[in-house]
Amino acid sequence: MTPVRMKILLVGATGVVGRCVLNSLQAQHDVISASLEPAKSDHEVQLDLSDADALVKTLKSLGQLDAVISAAGRARFGALADARPASVEASVYGLGLLDKLLGQVNLALAAREVLRPGGSITLTSGTTSTEPVLGGAGLSMVNGALESWVRAAATEFPQGWRLNVVSPSLVEGTPAEACAAFPGFEKVSAERVGLAYQRCLFSGITGQVLRA
Ligand SMILES: NC(=O)c1ccc[n+]([C@@H]2O[C@H](COP(=O)([O-])OP(=O)(O)OC[C@H]3O[C@@H](n4cnc5c(N)ncnc54)[C@H](OP(=O)(O)O)[C@@H]3O)[C@@H](O)[C@H]2O)c1
Predict the structure, then answer these.
(1) Ligand 1, closest atom to CA 170?
(2) pLDDT digit string (tens) for 172-208?
(3) For the chain, how many structural domains are there in total?
(4) What is the rounded CA–CA span in Å between residue 59 and residue 49?
(5) I need a labelling partner for 7 at 20 to 30 A (CA). Which of 29, 151, 161, 186 fits?
């Protein structure tokens, strides 16, 4: 069944993963692209996942949405030997916890205010939730926590709303510097990544972690 034209908010649309999602959806749907950078057109909005109040305000300003997708969220790599006990704000893990984890959780919570019944929310974790890499313990913690939250929170989302998370492996087009942290990982094509997000939107699944 071909899905009807949907109004979709895509956070992180200018990034490597975001562009895969945008390219797979924009021909058939109305996609509002969000990123940290100031908006340059009517199809773009500025949005910071780590600013909960601004997030709520921005979502409300967009009116009703059929789907919200996040392909964003920052986290820091760093050797465990350099990690010290610290508060969230001072920790080397703070950025990942506040931006990638809590930022995406807040996006999903705020989306309930603007999603049409039957709407879908799709977040992005990453392969380190199950495939550790050196210097990636903080990222593994964030990705694993996000996937666990999605599985559990989906059971409480009302009115047929759906909540899923895509966990991509190393995506083609990722800058060489970032690829170097993933030795031996095969790159996933942009098309395959786009298809995983399409499944979350159109196949009726909820509470799932889709590995691409
Ligand atoms: N690339 C991979 O191979 C891969 C694999 C698995 C998982 N992931 C995950 O997927 C996500 C995106 O990765 P990427 O490689 O596409 O990164 P990227 O190329 O650096 O793009 C990041 C995107 O997110 C936006 N963004 C960053 N922080 C934001 C915030 N606080 N609020 C709103 N938007 C924000 C950026 O906006 P601006 O352009 O305006 O800065 C940009 O659009 C990350 O969480 C990453 O861990 C990536």
Answers:
(1) 3
(2) 999 999 999 999 999 999 999 999 999 999 999 999 9
(3) 1
(4) 11
(5) 151
Residue nearest to atom 11 of ligand 1 (CA): 72
Would you say the CB of residue 122 lies under 6 angstroms from ligand 1? Answer: no
The amino acid at residue 199 is R
CATH number at residue 27: 3.40.50.720
- In-domain check, residue 1: no
Nearest CA to ligand 1 atom 8: 126
Task: Choose one of 9, 10, 16, 187 to mutate for the ligand 1 pocket test, by most ligand atoms within 8 angstroms of C-beta.
Answer: 16
Residue 206 inside a domain? The answer is yes
pLDDT tens digits for 61-73? Answer: 999 999 999 999 9
Q: CA nearest 111: which of 173, 184, 171, 162?
A: 162
pLDDT bucket at 1, cuts 50 / 70 / 90: low
